[in-house]
Design a protein that fits this description.
The complex is a heterodimer of chains A (318) and B (443). With 318 residues, chain A is α/β, with parallel strands linked by helices. Chain A is built from eleven helices and 14 strands. Chain A folds into two domains: 223 residues, P-loop containing nucleotide triphosphate hydrolases (Rossmann fold, 3-Layer(aba) Sandwich); 68 residues, Alpha-Beta Plaits (2-Layer Sandwich). In chain A, helix 4 crosses helix 5 and helix 8 packs across helix 11. The two termini of chain A are 22 Å apart. The C terminus of chain A is likely disordered. Chain B folds into two domains: 257 residues, no CATH class; 134 residues, no CATH class. Classes of the chains: A alpha/beta (318), B mainly alpha (443).
């Protein structure tokens, strides 16, 4: 990506709270049109980093630019391009959703009533927007939070653990909204989470942080290939496991029984070819073949856990 | 600037949407109604005559009996007087009774009776004035009788009688003073006497029946007649600490509630510098205080009208400044009193605002401020009693600008300028504290 597309640039940020250094030399960039995942276990420094970016906390050292504007020297100009939700989406409960949005509209330039209506329909709150926020569910408040965050057409949208407490339908809805904003409106969306599985479905790139240090920034594709390495795992369900295991003609170390099913590791280059051979062998042996499937990407989560456990080692992938 | 007012608008919406704020505004209205109602009740419980008045006929008879029994020197004159008054049925509270007494002290026999006839029967009061003027040695009285003749003011024109008496007494007192021998206290009294004279003359010259500066505080009244529209209105100015209490609540929760509701983060990630947000909050608190005062002021008018009546509502406020009498609308004077008394409210609201920004707790800041508001005067008064002169630099020694402006400060030699400087210094500290607590604080 070219430099023109860097909307969020964090370089060398250090932060000490009390005597504890929370952040060590945090550096990364996020681009227009992508969903950038900010991944790390609880207490890694995700929220602290986000709070520094949106100006809730000061930074001890380092620089942060939003669309080229230094947040310390040109706070208002920088923040005009930032929208966000930090921690919980707490709004004024005694006001309606619309009244809350008007509050934020007044604090930003160029937000018309038409834009407010547009945003409300984007987050699918039109039929409840005139209800008091105290009557909203968590999911609705989260969506109102997103509406608030994108009111002023920010170039950078920062959401701190936005799926916390949402039900699966709510998570999917939010995911769709964020993807649409990034991919269609070319916004830079930064989302923090401690769940790799969530990131996988939402993000184009992921920055991993643990114990206040960046462990690296990777595209999703890189991570997936790193997790599986040069092999692909398939899970086969049959009626006669022992017989089936004997007819599968691959190295002993690459086939095993897991939870009453057979798992096989196949080389990436010709995995499909090999699995079809295995299928044929099982059927030819008169064994009933129920299902054959590619294994869930459990290993992606494992990679993440392994990476973040061993923070001293620098956590190199691949 | 437009953006600042958009922030203020936000703060107003946030504050006014709260049920507690609405209740407070209702309380202000209730306070106005309650004060007027209590005043009306008090008025209905008071008699018009504070002093017990004897039956006139019996009084004259007692005097006559006493004179006849004891027969003191010159008693014949007195006897003639009382017999005449008894026969004519002159009431003791008639102004002319005192004039008749003066006549008896001046004239004798037939002349006295003739003059009494002029006074009570022939309505020839000018002749009476001339007689008394020519015979009195009292400077003030001499002037007063001449004044009645020159300006055609008969006896019995109540407010004019009072004004003439005031001026006459002042003139007499002033004439007796030896200017070279005055101590500073006496000089002060001399000046006050001069002002009394000036005001009385001004009222007479300009036909001004009432000067609302003469109205007492409701707390000092003892006769129903003393309670009128302006008595209650001026007293309401000393009751504005009710508004103070309410505005302390608003000030104490303005910043703290953003933290307790969790909305502070949404407030601060906007493209607005924090000090602007803080100032918009402060501006809102202070202006809302003045809106509540204005509300109290506006509700007082119909409330007093309903309970006490609008009698005397057009009376002006007269005062002497630099030896010249000035007229001011009494409504304007009430505004002035409200504004003078608002100073202490604003100082306390600022304190509550600062504490709440620093500690982010509405309950704590409101509690501390109300405690100080209630105890402040006591503490300062005690310190003064212990001769601790440094107490003059405390904020509570300086919030009562009205007393200081009237020249009755808590500490001697405490001028208005001194008080204002001390207040500004304290306010600056409060605001800088709020600033430090809000603008620099990590959220």
């Amino acid at each position: 990506m070219s430099d023109n597309n860097v909307l969020l640039k964090i370089s060398g940020v250090n932060k000490t709270i009390g005597k504890r250094q929370i952040l060590h030399d945090i550096t990364f960039e996020a681009y227009a049109g992508e969903v950038f995942g900010f991944l790390g276990p609880n207490g890694a420094g995700k929220t602290t980093t986000i709070k520094i970016i949106v100006g809730l906390l000061s930074l001890d050292e380092g620089e942060i630019y939003v669309d080229g504007a230094d947040i310390r020297k040109h706070f208002e100009a920088a923040m005009a391009n930032v929208g966000g939700i930090v921690e919980n989406p707490e709004m004024y409960k005694y006001m309606t959703g619309m009244e809350n949005l008007r509050q934020y509209a007044r604090m930003r330039n160029g937000v018309t009533q038409q834009r407010i209506d547009e945003v409300v329909s984007l987050v699918k709150l039109s039929n409840r927007i005139n209800d008091k926020v105290s009557k909203y569910s968590l999911g609705m408040r989260q969506r109102l939070g997103v509406a608030q965050a994108i009111l002023h057409h920010p170039k950078v949208l920062i959401l701190d653990e936005p799926t916390n407490g949402l039900d699966p339908a709510g998570i999917k809805e939010l995911r769709d909204i964020l993807k649409e904003l990034a991919h269609k409106e070319k916004i830079c969306v930064m989302v923090s989470s401690h769940l790799m599985s969530e990131m996988e479905l939402m993000c184009d790139r992921v920055g991993i942080i643990a114990n206040g240090r960046m462990l690296g920034v990777h595209t999703m594709a890189e991570l997936i290939s790193a997790s599986s390495g040069d092999k692909k795992e398939y899970v086969i369900q049959v009626d006669d496991i022992t017989k089936a295991l004997s007819v599968i003609d691959i190295d002993e170390s690459k086939k095993r029984i897991v939870d009453g099913r057979i798992a096989v590791d196949l080389p990436v280059e010709n995995a499909q070819e090999q699995i079809s051979i295995i299928n044929k062998a099982i059927i030819d042996a008169g064994i009933r073949l129920y299902t054959v499937s590619e294994a869930e990407n459990k290993k992606l989560e494992d990679v993440f856990i392994q990476l973040t456990k061993d923070t001293q080692g620098g956590g190199q992938i691949g | 600037m437009a953006k600042f007012f958009r922030l203020v608008k936000n703060e107003y919406i946030k504050t006014l949407k709260r049920v507690s704020t609405k209740i407070m505004l209702v309380l202000v209205v209730l306070a106005a109604v309650a004060l007027s109602g209590i005043a009306a009740f008090g008025k209905s419980q008071m008699s018009n005559e504070y002093y017990y008045v004897e039956d006139s006929y019996d009084y004259y008879q007692e005097q006559i009996d006493w004179l006849e029994t004891t027969q003191p020197v010159g008693y014949e004159n007195q006897l003639t007087l009382y017999e005449y008054l008894q026969e004519a049925g002159v009431e003791l509270d008639d102004v002319r009774y005192e004039v008749a007494e003066s006549l008896a002290a001046t004239l004798e026999g037939v002349e006295l009776v003739e003059s009494l006839d002029s006074l009570f029967v022939n309505d020839d009061w000018q002749a009476v004035c001339e007689v008394l003027r020519d015979n009195t040695i009292n400077e003030g009285d001499k002037w007063a009788y001449q004044y009645r003749i020159d300006n055609n003011i008969p006896f019995g024109d109540t407010w004019k009688d009072d004004a003439i008496t005031q001026a006459a007494q002042a003139k007499t007192a002033l004439a007796a003073v030896d200017l070279d021998m005055l101590s500073s206290d006496e000089a002060e009294q001399y000046r006050e006497m001069q002002e009394t004279e000036q005001l009385a003359l001004y009222r007479l010259d300009n036909n001004i029946e009432r000067n609302t500066a003469d109205n007492m505080s409701l707390f000092d009244t003892y006769e129903a007649d003393q309670i009128d529209f302006w008595t209650v209105f001026y007293t309401s100015a000393s009751m504005i600490s009710i508004v103070g209490l309410l505005i302390i609540v608003v000030a104490g929760s303005s910043v703290a509630s953003e933290f307790s509701q969790g909305t502070i983060k949404f407030l601060l990630i906007n493209p607005v510098k924090r000090w602007k947000i803080l100032m918009s909050k402060y501006f809102t608190v202070i202006s809302l205080g003045y809106i509540m005062l204005a509300l109290l002021y506006l509700v007082m008018i119909p409330a007093i009208g309903v309970f006490i009546g609008f009698d005397g509502i057009s009376a002006p406020y007269l005062y002497v400044d630099d030896g010249v009498v000035h007229t001011m609308s009494s409504f304007l004077r009430a505004v002035q009193m409200y504004l003078l008394n608002s100073v202490s409210i604003i100082v306390m609201a600022t304190l509550a605002f600062a504490i709440s920004s620093l500690f982010r707790s509405a309950a704590f800041s409101i509690g501390v401020t109300v405690f100080l508001m209630l105890m402040g005067n006591t503490i300062v008064t005690l310190l003064r009693a212990f001769n601790q002169d440094w107490a003059r630099y405390l904020v509570f020694s300086n919030t009562d600008l009205a007393s200081i402006a009237e020249g009755t400060p808590l500490f001697a030699q405490q001028s208005l300028t001194f008080a204002i400087v001390v207040l500004i210094a304290h306010m600056a500290v409060f605001i800088l504290t709020a600033w430090d607590g809000f603008v620099k604080r990590e959220v």
